[in-house]
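Inverse folding, one chain.
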């Protein structure tokens, strides 16, 4: 059976397009707004939604996303409520939804219960930044049984053997982190990104998406020329924060996403 992620990359490949992966922090400013944003961003051109689960002690997220997590936690957002929200969204959209969450959230619910609930809700993949592939054993079995691909991150400092391991273990796509640091930093060393993505694509059967530091339509255009997918997080979350008390918030964010996708159009 072809999953939504695989089908999406295949559809885009046929059109010579690259995937725009839009990150949202679930529950920022509230889960009803998150549901509105998912539908609006799909209509604006997003191909995949990466939905963050708020966590009090993140390791990979910069201040913009940390503050979004704090707002989401204050609004009463929990992992179980997020899954209920995704189940509701599945009545309105088939866009692939990947959950980005930290290991403790899964451990607290239990591997089996979490994977079954996520799959039933309509989740299409998992990104767990503090769980490298060599330590993913306890989650891998339940995730495989539930049809949930595990998507692993690869850093610019990774060795060739590490690159091969992540490529082999990652399914759905491989998440290449464009810089050493946290989300929200500025895109830099584009030549290095291009070289590392080229090496990664040689050993990966899955598409390669690049995230961290993509903030503008120009950045998205540049990265789309070297990778199969472009992940934009902090720049979207920043707009949500700026307009969260504005009735036009969803429209403002959707217009930004539309500009990103337009910039990624094939020449």
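Residues assigned per position:
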């Amino acid at each position: 059976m072809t999953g939504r992620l695989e089908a999406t990359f295949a559809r885009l490949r046929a059109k010579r397009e690259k995937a725009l992966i839009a990150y949202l922090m679930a529950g920022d400013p509230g889960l009803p707004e998150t549901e509105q944003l998912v539908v609006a961003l799909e209509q604006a051109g997003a191909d995949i939604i990466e939905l963050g689960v708020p966590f009090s002690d993140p390791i990979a997220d910069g201040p913009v996303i940390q503050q979004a997590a704090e707002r989401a936690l204050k609004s009463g957002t929990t992992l179980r409520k997020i899954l209920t929200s995704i189940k509701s969204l599945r009545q309105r959209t088939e866009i692939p939804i990947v959950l980005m969450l930290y290991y403790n959230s899964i451990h607290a619910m239990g591997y089996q219960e979490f994977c079954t609930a996520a799959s039933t809700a309509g989740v299409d993949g998992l990104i767990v930044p503090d769980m490298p592939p060599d330590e993913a054993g306890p989650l891998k079995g339940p995730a495989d049984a539930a049809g949930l691909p595990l998507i692993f991150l690869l850093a610019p400092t990774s060795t060739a053997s590490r690159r091969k391991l992540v490529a082999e273990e990652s399914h759905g796509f491989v998440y290449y982190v464009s810089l050493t640091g946290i989300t929200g930093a500025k895109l830099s060393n584009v030549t290095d990104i291009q070289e590392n993505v080229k090496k990664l694509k040689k050993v990966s059967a899955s598409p390669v998406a690049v995230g961290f530091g993509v903030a503008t339509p120009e950045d998205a255009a540049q990265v789309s020329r070297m990778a199969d997918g472009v992940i934009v997080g902090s720049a979207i979350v920043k707009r949500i924060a700026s307009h969260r008390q504005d009735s036009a918030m969803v429209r403002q964010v959707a217009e930004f996403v539309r500009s990103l996708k337009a910039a990624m159009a094939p020449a």
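The chain has twelve helices and nine strands. The beta strands are 19-25, 48-52, 97-100, 125-127, 150-151, 153-154, 174-177, 208-211, 229-232.
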